[in-house]
Structures are given as structure tokens and as C-alpha cells.
Amino acid sequence: ALVRQAANTLWLTTIPTWALVAGSIVGVPIYISLRVVLRNWRHARAAAAMGARLAPTSKRGKLPGNLDLLIQMMEIWANGYPGDGLSETLEECGPVVDLRVMGDNIIMTSEPDHIKQILATDFQNYVKGEKFQEGMRSVLGTGVFNSDGDMWKFHRTLTRPYFARDRISHFETFDRHADQVIALLKQRMKTGYAVDFQDLIGRFTMDSATEFLFGSCVNSLDASLPFPHNATFAAPESADPVHARIATEFLGAFNEMLWHTANRARVGWTWPLIEMWHDRTEAPMKIVSAYIDPIIKDRLEKKAVSDALKESLDGKEADLTEGMTLLDDLVDKTSDPKVLKDETLNILLAGKDTTQWTTTVAVYFLAMHPHVTARLREEILQHVGPTRRPTYDDIRDMKYLRAVLNETMRLYPSVPFNVRESINATTWPSPDPTKKPIYIPANTQVPYTVFLMHRRKDLWGPDAEEFDPDRWLDERLHKYLLKNSFQFLPFNAGPRICLGQQFAYNEMSFILIRLLQNFSEFYVDTDAFRPEARPNPDWAVFGGRKGTDKFRPKMHLTMYSEGGMWLKMKAAAEAA
Ligand code: HEM
């Protein structure tokens, strides 16, 4: 009908429908191919004019538009190891490659100098882009994580001052929730069953984040913990108090929202078609809003009372704002409930799963490397002792702890893949200095992967895939990292560097110290992982992390372990 309608419009009414349909079937691919050929020719000319060359392309795709590679990537996303397919492509072409998906230039890089240019030295020439933001908008609005240009500057300026100050209150928050975590762990270990450490730390980061953001903790640590699939009993969730059930629902809705937004980024321009009849973020967003909206309303009402009182007292002694939470800080600058909601939700998204993942994998690595656990405990006992609450100064001085965290984020960065879009045509330096720079067309998606960059042997040495915190302390630091600091980027870099970096180091260090004050040995309980959540046995032949690790890493916006991270631990003698 569409073809016939178009034909009518073009006065081609005398041509029979079958001929129009056949013409379209043959004509559309020819039209697309011609467009691609013409565009590549234009790019080649523009590249030559700039003294540059086109980015290498892979020979691996056999179908038009690299459709076979696209299907393969979808399959890897669902069942493979992160980076599979791409690492082979980068091996074939070098650290930068034009993936050419369905005729579009998509120039992926794992080269520190390119990422430096995107994030820092040529920051003005790149945006997150409308394609990325559109999929997130129903959840994140125009908050700091999901905006570009002036809107991003507005949100960043609004939020930055809060993170610029070190807050003792954060340590009090961490401490209360860490106590709950330790108590839950001790309780669980008494049952003889493993704990899903990823789930437990997710509750810790959610409770800490909601408390420092809103001053109103969601209390997800009050809900019962899941038992492994092989347990013979499990406490029913319905036995939880009402507030804990609400917290579980909130946590579930938040995770679901994340999942759908990441899925939109993955399926690209097709997501509005898939969700044409039904916005998949609507239902979970309703649950999240039911929690956040009343808090914001309440805070704005308090602010109005405080302002009125201040006015009646000519501004003397009437400041009722506590100034402790991010929301307190923000209401001093804006009373727009939408801005307040977007901003706090953006920070919750940026700060919760990232710290959850790093802490989870750090403890997984401790389980796999008992000598690292012993050394880290030694440092903790030396600096903090077996029971005292750690301070900011303790954390700053603990070099081995920082090395363990950095090594964890090197091998399993929370944000393994990211993307920007070029505004104007430009060039990137050639990884091979004997060759011309690489041409980057305007309005082109440029994904970059710190996950693959952090594992490159030419950048980190032959043992790049090994977990070895000492590389941050011995001669390897000078030999590799200090040559180019842009080769380690778990927190991004440049004007959009993670706002919560220091907060994250404090939070992760705090919980690890508390954990190692109380437990001295950790074990991965493989049987507690559901069979489909265990690593594919065929991966063993690959060696490296893929062949060694005992969990199945997956990603939405951030990384996670499929089906949880089931661990057991032994209480420390000092803590008894
Ligand atoms: C291990 C923990 C963390 C890691 C690895 C991490 C990593 C990152 C990365 C890679 C980005 C850049 C995203 C992009 O531009 O595409 C980012 C941005 C951001 N992070 Fe973090 N983050 C962590 C924890 C936190 C925490 C705890 C908070 C807040 C409490 C936070 C707040 C933010 C914010 C607000 C942004 C957006 C900055 C902007 O676009 O201007 N992050 N983070």
C-alpha cells in the first residue's frame, strides 16, 4: 500500500503494483549501496585534503552492511564474554576500526591518545549525542549524566560543589550500613550457605546513596537475603516488614529501569519501534517516582517555610536547611521539582551500580588470591586495627588497598564500553607513527572501550590479564602507566570526569576495611551459582580472564555478574 501510495504521489499510476514492489526490492538496496559508496568517496577526498586516511575496516563481515557481524554481536551480548568479536576485530585491524554497521561509520577505538582527544583535549568536538540521550530521557530527563552543551553545564555546575567537599557525614552513613552488612554476613555464614555478595553490596550502595542524596534511606538491607538455588530452605519474602518489601520493590524497579534504558542503547534506532505501543520504563519509573516525588515535595515545603521565616526575621538565625544531603544542597539553588528529580536520579544511577560492581569483583579477586587478602588484612590491621572505624586519613594512606581497587577496575571497569558522537570532521593520531592520521567524519558515532584498552599487552605488559595489585606499586607503574595516564580510565577523564570518584573510593575502601576486619578468608561457591550463570566451559581453552574467572560477566550500562556472586567467608580470629 505504501509503495502504491508513493507511486500515486509521483504520478506513476500506469505501472503495475507487482513491478513497483519488485523495483523497490531491488532498488532500495541499490540506493543504499550507492549512497554508501558516494559517502565513502566523499570521506576519502576529505581525508586526503586533511592529510589523513580512512579508519581501517574489518574483512570479517561477509554479508552486506556487516549484517552477519551485527547478528553475531547480538548473540555475544546475550551469551558471550564482554568484548568477544570486537577484540578479534581490533587484533585484525589495530586499536581503531570502522565497524561500518548497516552502512553507517561507527569508529571504535581502544587507543589512549584517541580517548584523550575525545574526552579531554578536543572535548568541545564530541557529544553524548541525541541517539544516546533519547533512550534514557524517560528515566533520566536532562540530568547531568544525560545532557550535552549548556544543559549539561547547568547540571554539572549545580551538582559539583556538593562533591567538592569531603563530608564526615558520609562516613557515618557508610558505618551504619556496613554494620548491617557484617551482621547479615555473619548470620548467613552460620547457616552454611553462600551469600550473593553482589546483591548484598547492591543493597549497601543503594541504602548509602539514598541516604546521602535524599536524607531518606530506602532500607533495602532490612529485607531478607536470597538463598542460593541449591538451598533446601529460604525465608519467604512476605515475612519481611512492610518497609523492607517496599525497598525490595524499589530496588527491583530501579534495576528494571536500568535494564530497559541499556537495551534501548543496544538496539539503537529501532527501540521506538519496539516500544511503539508500550514504554517499558513506565511501570518501573512509577514505582521509583512513588518513592522520590514525596521526598522532593517535602523538602521543597520545608525550604518554603525556612525562606518565609528568614524573611520575617530579616535573615537572622533562621536557616533550617541542614546542608547534609545533595537534595539540601540543590534546593538552595533551584525549586524546580523536575530539575531536582532528574539530578538526584542521575546521581543514583551513576553512583549505585558502579560501586556495587567494583566492590563485588574486588572481593571475588580476594577469594581467588588468598595471599592478596592476607596482605591487605595486614595493611588494614596496621593502619586501623581490628575494630576501629576507618577515617578518611586511614584510607588515603593505605597504598595496597588503593592498588587492589585500581587493579580490580583495570580488569573489570564498571563502564566497559562508552560512546560519543563527533560534531565536526577531525583527525586522530595514527597508532602506527609511520602512517597518516585517521580521518573522523562529522556526526559519527565513536565508541571507545576502556575494557579492552585496560587489557592490552602492549600497554600493560605480557601479564596484562593477570590480577596483580603490585603492578601499581613496583617498577611496572613507571614502565607502563606513567608513560600515558590515559591508558587507565575507569572514571573517564576531562570535563566530564566522574563527579563521584572520591566518594566512590571512600565508600569502597570503607566497606572493604570493615569486611576484612571481620573476615579473613573468602571462597567462591561455584555450586551456588545456577548452572546457566556459570562461565561457559568452552571458554577454558582461551586462558586469560575469560578462561580463568569463575563467574559470567555481563553488561547493561555497567557490568554485573550473571545470577549473582556467591561467596562464603571465614570469620577473623580478631573479630570473634
Ligand atoms: C567505582 C565507582 C564508579 C565508577 C567506576 C564511575 C565511573 C564513571 C564514568 C566512567 C563516568 C563517565 C560516564 C560518561 O560520561 O559517559 C561517570 C560519570 C559520572 N559519575 Fe561516576 N563512577 C563511579 C561512582 C560514582 C559515584 C559514587 C557517584 C556519585 C555519588 C558518581 C557520579 C557520577 C556522575 C554525576 C557522572 C556524570 C558526570 C558528567 O557527565 O558530567 N559516580 N562515572
TrEMBL record:
Gene3D superfamilies: Cytochrome P450 (1.10.630.10). It comes from the Eukaryota. The chain crosses the membrane at residues 15-38. Coiled coil: none annotated. Keywords: Heme, Iron, Membrane, Metal-binding, Monooxygenase, Oxidoreductase, Signal, Transmembrane, Transmembrane helix. Heme binds at residue 498. Pfam families: p450. InterPro entries: Cyt_P450, Cyt_P450_CS, Cyt_P450_E_CYP52_fungi, Cyt_P450_E_grp-I, Cyt_P450_sf. Belongs to the cytochrome P450 family. This is Cytochrome P450. It comes from Mycena chlorophos (Agaric fungus).
